[in-house]
Amino acid sequence: MKPMDLPLRRSAGSRPVAVDRLRGGRAIATQDCVAEEVPVALEYNGVSHAVMLATPADLEDFGLGFSLTEDIVDRASDIRGIDVVAGPHGITVRIDVASACFVRLKERRRNLAGRSGCGLCGMESLPEAVRAPPVLRSAAAFPAHTLLDALHALRGGLQPLHEATGATHAAGFGDASGQLLLVREDVGRHNALDKLIGALVREGHDVARGFIVSSSRASYEMASKTARSGATLLAAVSGVTGLAIDLAEAAGLALVGFARGDAMSIYSHAERVLWDRSHG
């Protein structure tokens, strides 16, 4: 299936608003479509753990992905159930986890208050903020053109919410041929990635056999979540941070930035990106 053959997902998480648009020195009263951003509380075994500002779509995927990439659970089977409950002040994602995971979570005593652009809010110590990544053992490598093909497809109709609002990020999962198999969107780039990882696990994809692309920059947390998902490559359309490179080097993660058109910059584990090295 070609990427553009994928059915377009509904633009859930947006709403129409009145707007005065200035154009050519004239004001025109019209309507616009904006992305929704609501408080989403993540609750484990009845105890509130984190409140994020997120797009109210794909929240079961978000709950699963967040639980995995934040090391709250070790595997999807540690989660007994996920319920999404709307309330007057926001949405609560109620996650029932195995007792051993809940005990570990309580011992961490973290009170994380998240924002759509914030990566490490609420951490209690420096060692907790910069956690050692898992080491990726897969030998997976991908032709450079497949990364560019996937990012081109991401911009070519697979972000309906962004097309409607211009205010969201996207994360996508590509296979070895460069076809995008899944895409998730959110006002926060970290949230979009968590949603994608949750969806990949729920649908049974072998994450180690593909790569992740992002419409944003590649920060430390984006690299950390990618490594914890088992994917061996993260390609972003924008730049990367120094701490993201350090983590990627330690984890065995290929980190690619400024992947646009026919160009890209490879910041770590270039052996995972295949191109004709005889041409320099």
Describe the overall structure.
- With 280 residues, the chain is α/β, with parallel strands linked by helices.
- The chain has two domains: 92 residues, Ubiquitin-like (UB roll) (Roll); 138 residues, Cytidine Deaminase, domain 2, CATH 3.40.140.
- The protein has eight helices and 15 strands.
- The longest helix has 14 residues.
- The relative contact order is 0.15.
- The N terminus is likely disordered.
Order of helices and strands: EEEEHEEHEHEHHEEHEHEHEEE
Helical content class: 25-40%
Structural class: alpha/beta
Q: Round the mean pLDDT to the nearest integer and report it.
A: 89
N/C terminus separation: 33 Å
Count of DSSP-assigned helices: 8
Total domains: 2
Briefly, what is this?
The chain has about 280 residues and is of the alpha/beta class. It has helices at about 60-70, 100-110, 125-130, 145-155, 160-165, 190-200, 220-230, 240-250; strands at about 15-25, 25-35, 40-45, 45-55, 80-85, 90-95, 110-115, 140-145, 170-175, 180-185, 210-215, 235, 255-260, 265-270, 275.
Give structural attributes:
about 280 residues, alpha/beta, Ubiquitin-like (UB roll), Cytidine Deaminase, domain 2, 2 domains, six-stranded mixed β-sheet, five-stranded mixed β-sheet, 15 strands, about 30% helix, FdhD
Layout of secondary structure:
Layout: E1 14-23, E2 26-35, E3 38-44, E4 47-54, H1 59-69, E5 79-87, E6 90-97, H2 99-108, E7 112-113, H3 126-129, E8 142-143, H4 144-155, H5 160-165, E9 169-174, E10 180-186, H6 189-202, E11 211-214, H7 220-229, E12 233-236, H8 242-251, E13 254-260, E14 263-268, E15 273-274
Parallel strand pairs: 3-6, 4-7, 8-15, 11-12, 12-13
Antiparallel strand pairs: 1-2, 3-4, 5-6, 9-10, 9-11, 13-14
Helix pairs in contact: 1-6, 6-7, 7-8
